[in-house]
């Protein structure tokens, strides 16, 4: 065994456990508490396996699942930026790139490059896998929010236009899932959970 390599891997494994401490604005089903980043990533990975048939293009399911598991690890250092936080969005890219340097730099070089590559692929939104991973990233919190009566949208006074702007590329990953998401938006506007503007 290469003990130096193993130590780097072990240290990374313990470091990413901190993802469980990064809480998001979305509540878990039943609204008992907010979900954390690791719960979000796990949920997205399972959703990817279940819903891959709705991707507009054939995807490498395992690669896409891994992308969903890795995409928010940088938030261990960069923090979670709420989807509708315009001020936080101004510094998000820089904070996350610095976090990626630090986090993926902990690993043996080959594994660090591979995980960094998956993270960058997700961020660039150019491959079928990245497009579908983004669908999952937008659909998962919408499903939870809808199941909880839209309380997260109500709490933050979110409007239809904001949700539609966030999802302007969602149909490029899955037209069918986007069609369903639009019906969720319409329903929540109608009942007042989302502002109609």
Characterize the overall form. Answer: globular
Number of helices: 11
Distance separating the two termini: 60 Å
Report strand order across the widest sheet. 1-2
Number of strands: 2
How does the major sheet shape up?
A: 2 strands, antiparallel
Portion of residues in beta strands equals under 5%
Helical proportion? 55-70%
Q: What structural category characterises the helix and strand content?
A: mainly alpha
Helix/strand order:
HEEHHHHHHHHHH
Rg from Cα: 17 Å
Mean pLDDT: 97
Poorly predicted runs: none
Key structural traits:
197 residues, mainly alpha, two-stranded antiparallel sheet, 4% strand, globular
Give structural notes.
The chain has 197 residues and is mainly α. The termini are far apart. The mean pLDDT is 97.
């Amino acid at each position: 065994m290469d003990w130096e390599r193993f130590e780097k891997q072990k240290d990374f494994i313990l470091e990413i456990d901190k993802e469980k401490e990064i809480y998001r604005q979305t509540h878990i089903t039943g609204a008992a508490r907010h979900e954390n980043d690791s719960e979000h990533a796990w949920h997205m990975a399972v959703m990817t396996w279940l819903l891959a048939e709705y991707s507009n293009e054939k995807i490498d399911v395992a690669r896409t699942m891994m992308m969903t598991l890795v995409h928010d690890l940088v938030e261990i250092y960069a923090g979670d930026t709420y989807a509708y936080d315009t001020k936080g969005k101004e510094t998000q890219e820089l904070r996350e790139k610095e976090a990626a340097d630090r986090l993926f730099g902990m690993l043996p070089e080959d594994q660090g490059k591979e995980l960094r590559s998956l993270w960058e692929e997700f961020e660039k939104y150019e491959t079928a896998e990245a497009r579908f991973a983004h669908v999952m990233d937008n659909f998962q919190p919408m499903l939870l929010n809808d199941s909880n009566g839209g309380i997260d949208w109500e709490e933050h006074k979110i409007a239809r236009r904001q949700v539609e702007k966030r999802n302007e590329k969602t149909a490029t990953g899955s037209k069918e899932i986007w069609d369903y998401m639009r019906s969720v938006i319409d329903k929540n506007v109608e009942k007042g959970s989302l502002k109609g503007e």
